[in-house]
């Protein structure tokens, strides 16, 4: 759907988190970059998603809906949401994300809030990384440098996707928890997605 971009800096981390067995748990994740420059098919899908959002806005104005829809009146905000949705659709092509509901699950974040989630959920993975790399650089440091190279973190907007169980494709695969983060650079028209989840190895 969106053009996948290859970067060696991301590949090292991506290979590490793709399927990391930690004994009782397995971390599964991906770290990938995409161009936001639309192809012809992208434009059609983007137009369709925007119509879905606008239709939802119209219905919300006619109801007592309390969902946080104010920023969807801004075209730039809708465009950002569509880029994030297109990225999700690329990662999970078999899953149907609702554009009308997606705004309820995306939140703008800072690097500090991202780091807090990273430190808690990837604590054991980070220790494994240090073992495999002789303690030279931490997983977070390597990730930071890779992201900065690809999307220039100082210019980025960071978003998280925190859906209900029904809207999270990882839970269909038996995940205990999951996280999705997007690093979006408007100037470069580029987004990097980092998603990682934890699956129990004790469940048959």
Automatic annotation (TrEMBL):
Signal peptide: none annotated. This is Repressor of RNA polymerase III transcription. GO terms for molecular function: RNA polymerase III core binding. One of its GO terms (cellular component) is nucleus. One of its GO terms (biological process) is negative regulation of transcription by RNA polymerase III.
């Amino acid at each position: 759907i969106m053009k996948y971009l290859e970067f060696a800096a991301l590949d090292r981390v991506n290979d590490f988190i793709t399927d990391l067995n930690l004994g009782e748990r397995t971390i599964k994740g991906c770290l990938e970059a995409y161009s936001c420059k639309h192809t012809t098919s992208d434009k059609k899908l983007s137009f369709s998603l925007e119509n879905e959002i606008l239709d939802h806005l119209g219905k919300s104005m006619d109801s007592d809906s309390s969902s946080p829809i104010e920023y969807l009146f801004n075209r730039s905000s809708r465009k950002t949401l569509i880029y994030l949705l297109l990225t999700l659709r690329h990662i999970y092509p078999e899953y149907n994300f609702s554009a009308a509901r997606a705004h309820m699950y995306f939140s703008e974040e800072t690097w500090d809030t991202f780091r807090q989630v990273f430190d808690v959920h990837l604590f054991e993975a980070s220790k494994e990384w240090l073992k495999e790399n002789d303690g030279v650089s931490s997983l977070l440091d390597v990730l930071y440098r890779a992201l900065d190279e690809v999307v220039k973190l100082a210019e980025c907007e960071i978003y998280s996707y925190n859906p209900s169980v029904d809207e999270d494709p990882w839970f269909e695969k038996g995940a205990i928890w999951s996280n999705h983060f997007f690093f979006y650079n408007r100037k470069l028209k580029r987004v990097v997605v980092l998603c990682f989840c934890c699956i129990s190895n004790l469940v048959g």
